[in-house]
Amino acid sequence: MTQEYPTSLGTSDADTISLLGQNLADDLMGKVGFGELTFWMVTQRRPTPSEVRVFESVLVALADHGFTPTAIAARITYLSAPDSVQGALAAGLLGGGSRFLGVTEDCGQFLDAVLAEAGEIPADDAGFDALALTAVTNAKAEKKFVPGLGHPVHKVLDPRTPRLIAIAEEEGLRGPHLRLFEAIGRVHPQVLGRTLPLNGAGVCGAVLADLGLPMALLRGFALLARAAGLLGQLAEEQRRPIANDIYMNVDRNAVYVPPEPE
């Protein structure tokens, strides 16, 4: 008996390649954008034009943010192994964790858990504010951070946040996760005693959650976006290299200190 391995994604034979039940060459190439295809492969349903616009806005928002640790890791790895572009890309992607990129998933899951515990979606902003106040208060009591609050550079406003909210509103996709995240932005000063911006990674998580994408894969979409950014960083490293300067600056300024006794 021949073992079968079912898939709803891609298959091929001697003459054709099929993807999502479509002829890859005839039905998809030149007709479907990469963002739309990604959404389709993950959800197994073709997204609407509105969903594509919102989803691709998230990818653009997360693609690159300057000389972040992920970009520096990619450039330094490329310096060490210029014959291994895949290694440099992988090095940058491996840095996508709780402080960079991972906030997207953390925020989406946090919001989803709050909504699930509430049991019903609030009817208005006042209801979302009350739910957000409880969530932030509980997080503080448990000595936990609220994902998506604060940014190391944008201390007052992350410019991605209002734009993504506006795009979601324009497309009729400003759902409960995003509305709860906005409410957290309104009420958290009452609990924390200071005002922090809603960061772009967090709003991306809220938007992705509202699109119905799998919670356990939200970080994957951030990594997908950052892969494009890292490729751009490596291309720039080829044109205007800085990795060796970074390496030499750290190495030549290293100062030996005796080990501290245990």
Q: How do the strands and helices of this protein lay out in sequence?
A:
Layout: E1 10-12, E2 17-19, E3 22-23, H1 24-28, H2 34-43, H3 49-62, H4 69-80, H5 85-94, H6 102-118, H7 125-141, H8 160-170, H9 176-192, H10 200-210, H11 218-239, H12 243-252
Antiparallel strand pairs: 1-2, 2-3
Helix pairs in contact: 3-8, 3-10, 3-11, 4-5, 4-11, 4-12, 5-11, 6-9, 6-10, 6-11, 7-9, 8-10, 9-10
Explain what this protein looks like in three dimensions:
This protein is mainly alpha-helical and 262 residues long. The protein has a domain at 102-213: Cytochrome p450-Terp, domain 2. Helix content is 60%, strand content 3%. The chain has helices at 24-28, 34-43, 49-62, 69-80, 85-94, 102-118, 125-141, 160-170, 176-192, 200-210, 218-239, 243-252, and strands at residues 10-12, 17-19, 22-23. The longest helix is centred in the last third of the chain and has 22 residues, at 218-239. The protein is globular. The mean pLDDT is 94.
Features:
262 residues, mainly alpha, Cytochrome p450-Terp, domain 2, globular
